[in-house]
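Take a careful look at the protein record below. Let me know whether the C-alpha cells fit the sequence:
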Amino acid sequence: MTHTDYTSEPVSPREKPDAAIAMIDAAGTVVGWTEAAQQLVGYAAGDMVGRSATRVLASPVDALGTSAFAEQCRAQGGWSGTVPLRHRHGHTLRMTLRVSLLRGQSTDIRWLVSVTDIGALSSGASTEPVRDSLLSHAPIGIAVYDPQLRCTWVNDAKEQQDGICRDRRFGHGLTDWLPAFEAEALEVVMRQVLDSGTTMVHEYRAWPQAVRRREHAFSVSFFCLQDADDTPLGVCSMTVDVTGNRRARERLAILSEASTHIGSTLDVMRTGQELADLAVPLLADHVLVDLVESVPLGFELSTGSGTASGRPPMLRRAGVATIDPNVPRLPFTREEVIHPHPASSFAAALRTGRSHLEPVLDTHGGPWVDPDPARAQKVRDHGIHSLMVVPIRARRSVLGLALFARSEEPTPFQEDDLLLAEELVTRAALCLENALQYTRERTAALTLQRDLLPHRVRGGDAVEVTSRYVPADMDHGVGGDWFDVIELSGARVALIVGDVVGHGINAAATMGRLRTAVRTLADMDLPPHELLAHLDDTVRRLGEEDTDGHVPAVAGATCLYAVYDPVSLRCTMARAGHPPPAIIDPQGRVTFPDLPAGVPLGLGLGLLAYESVELQLPEGSVLAFYTDGIVETRDCDLDVGMHRLGAALSPTDRSLDDMCSAVIDALPTQKHSDDVTLLLARTRALPPTQVASWDLPNEPTAVRTARHLASRQVSAWGMEHLTTTVGLIVSELVTNAIRYGGGPIRLRLIQHQVLTCEVSDNSTSHPRPRQPLVLDENGRGLSLVAQLSRRWGSRSAPNGKIVWAEQDLPFKDQVT
C-alpha cells in the first residue's frame, strides 16, 4: 500500500469524546480500557480492567460474555445497536455500541467494543470522519499493536481494506509490509498516542494492492489501550475508507468552480471552451467539447435524429483543453469540423443521449479508430488510455458531446468520475441552453428589425442617400435603432433616425411601431417640431396600453427628424433627446449644429418640448444622422466619439458608401454594447428651369389666368399630354383659395420625379373633401382633384397653407 500524504489531529483529553474504546476477552472480561472510555462513563482503567463488562452494561445485554450472545456475535462477525450504559454516578446513558471480532495468532478471539454518544452525534458535535462513520455500515478495519508496535490482533475488514493478510501482520511492525517512509510516519503518530494516552486522528491516501490503480483515501483513529494500573498495553487503530467522502468534497469544490467559471457569456462557443478549461486538470488530462454545427446558429438536434442519410450530424469543436504543453502537436483544433463515424461511441451518444465510459481505451482498433488512422496514431503517441463521452443535453435535445481523456494520470476513469463529468456537462448544458435561447431571440429580433427597417432608401431628386446598420454584440443583443427616408410633396424629403432604449425583440417591435407612426405623421406634412410632439403623445399612449392601465414607465426613445427642400436648399430639423447631426460642407468642414436637444419621447410634454431650426445648406453638403452607438463607448467621452466621427466623414469627395465604411472602420475594436446606425444624405438642388411660380390676385379672374400660365408652362416642358389635366387641377385649387382663403395667392409648378402643382394662400384652414348630395352645386372640386391626380394634400406654411397635387410623368426621360 503506497502512502502519499497524511495529517494528524489529536483529540484533547479535556474534552468529552464522542467515542470510547474497550477490549474484552471471550469471557466478557475487560482486558483493555481507554482514557476516552473513562471520560464517557466515569470508570477509570483500574475500575474496569479485569472485571466483567456487565458493570456498565444495562438491559437488554445483561452479560456480554454469555454463550448465546458470544455465539451470535461470532456468527455475524460482530454486533451493533443502541444500548443503555450505567454511568459511575448512577444515571443511564443511551449509547450506540458496536462489537467487532478480533483474531490473534492463536485461535483465541477478542472483542473490541466501540461506544458512541448518541446525543453528541445528533447534536452535530462530531466532526471527525472516523467517529461519524461509527453509525454507518461502512466496514471498519481494526488492528491492535503492542507497545513495541507489533500487530497482535486484527479483524477481517482490515484485510479487505489494504489486501494484506493477517498472517503477514502478526508479530511484525509496519515496516514489514509498508515502505520505510510510510511506516515511520505512522509509527510516529502511534508513539505519540502511547506517550500521551490521547486519541489522534490520521488521514492519508493510498492504493490498496487489490486495486492498485485506484486511489483511496483513509482516515484512522488511534487509541491507547491501558491496563488496570494505567500502563499502556498497546495501540488500537480503527481505519475507515473515506474515499467517497473525500471525493464528494472534491466534487463539490469542482461544481462550485463550475458555477462561477462556466457560462460567463452568452456565446455558445465560449461556453464550450470554459467547460474544457475547468475540467483540466481537475478531472481529466484532455477535454474536447464538440457542438452540433447548427447550435451556434441557434438550432438544436433532437435526440435520436441525424442527417437525412442517417449519418450523425457534423460537429464543430468549441472547446479544447489539455495538460500537454505541446498543444499544436495534438489532434485537437478549435473550430474544426468533426464527422463522427456512424458506428462510433460518439455517434451512439448523439443518437441515444446516453454517456459512454471506456476505462481502458483500445487505440489499436474499432470503429472510431479505423476511419482516421493518423489521428488514432497521435492519440496512441500521447498515451491516452481512458475515455469518457458525455452527451450535452438540453431538455429533449442533444447539443453536442464532451470528451474526457486521461494520459498522464494513471488511474482510469471510474463510474463516479462519469457521474462528476455528467454533472459538469449538465451545468454547462444549462448555460448553453440559455445562450441558445438568447441566440434564437436575438435572431428573431434581428430578423424582425431588418424586416421593419427600409430595405432600400431613396431620396428622390432631393438627396442621395446611403445607410449602415450594425447590431450590438452577442452579449447585449439587438437594440431598437431605426432610420427612414420619406419622400414628401414638393420634391422635399424627410430624414429620420431614432433609437429605442433597450435590447431584444421588444425593442425591435417598439421600433417598428414608432417607424410606422412617423410615416403616418410624415404624410400629414407636419413641421418637425409638431411631428415630434405628436410622436411623443403616441409613445405615451403606447406605454399606457402596454401596462394595462397602470402608471406607465417613461419610454426611453429618442428621434431626430429633418425635412430638406431642394428648391430653397433649406433644411428644417428638430430632435427629441437625440444626438445632433453632423453637417459636412462641400469643402469638407464638419459642424454639429446647435439644435435644441428636446426631451426623449414618451413624457407627454407636447409642443413645448420641441423646437425646429432652419438651416441653409449649399448643394453637395452631406448630412450625417447617427445613433449614440457610434459616438458613445464605455472607454471614451462623447466629445471624443463626435470628433472621431467628424474626422471619418471629412473630406466629402468620396462616395457615400466609402464615407459609411470609413465611419464604421473608425469605431473602437471592442464589442459594441449598442447598435450602430448611420444615415448619410448628400443634398441636391433642383435647377431653376424645373420650377415655375406666379403671384395671383385674390379675385375670380385669377382662375383663368392661372390655368393659362400653367398650361403654357407644361407645354414648354414638353408635357402637352398633361395640359388639360393640369388646367383642371389648377382651376379647382385656385378657386378654393379665392373662395376660402385670403390675401395673395401663389401658384407653383415643380418638375421632378413627378409634376407637382402647388397653390398657397394665407388661410390656416386645411381643405377637407366631402361627399356632396345629388342636388348640391358645390363640394365636388376636391373630389375631381383626387380623381385627376396621383395624390394630393395640404401642408402648413409660415403664412398660411399650401394645397398640392401630383401628376405622374410616364415619359420623364423624354422631357427636355
